[in-house]
Amino acid sequence: MHIRAAFQASIGDPFQLRPAEFSLLMLLLTNKAATQARLSEALAMSAPNLTTLVDRLVVRGLVERVRSEQDRRAQQLCLTTAGLDLASRAHALSTTMEDASLSGLCPAERAMLLELLHRVGTPRPV
Predict the structure, then answer these.
(1) Nearest to 91 by CA among 2, 13, 15, 3
(2) How far apart are alpha carbons 69 and 67 in whole angstroms?
């Protein structure tokens, strides 16, 4: 709950972003362009839900759909100039938003927490 409140105070309210919207912007910030299918997989989100999410960001002028140069039938999602600016500013704030919540942990405990969260977030074969 503390981390969610930190997100809302640092990024959600100031940038009017939901966690899933922020995640999508961060994926596009680091990948420049991606298909909706790849983003759907990366976010573990159904195609219809991702379309709704993308539509909201398109209306805000943060994301645009662009025809793929490799396959003209496919569309890629890209950040607009406004989207790149907002995503860059939100990313910068995200690097410190959890500091207060994690202040009781020593550096080794923080490293252990990050390692464990990475392990939990990594899909395992069944």
Answers:
(1) 15
(2) 6
Q: Which two tokens stand for residue 29?
A: 């910030």
* CA gap 49, 34 in Å, rounded: 16
Which of 64, 73, 72 is closest to 33 using CA atoms? 64
Where are the extended beta strands (E) located within the chain?
A: 33-35, 63-67, 75-79
21: left (phi over 0), alpha (psi -120 to 50) or beta: alpha
Q: Is 7 helix (H, G, I), strand (E, B) or coil?
A: helix
pTM of the model as a whole: 0.81
Phi then psi for 21, rounded to 5 degrees?
A: -65, -45
The residue count for the chain: 126
User: What digits encode the pLDDT tens for the residues 34-73?
Assistant: 888 889 988 989 999 999 999 999 999 999 999 877 777 7
Asked whether 41 and 31 are in contact (CB, 8 A), the reply is no
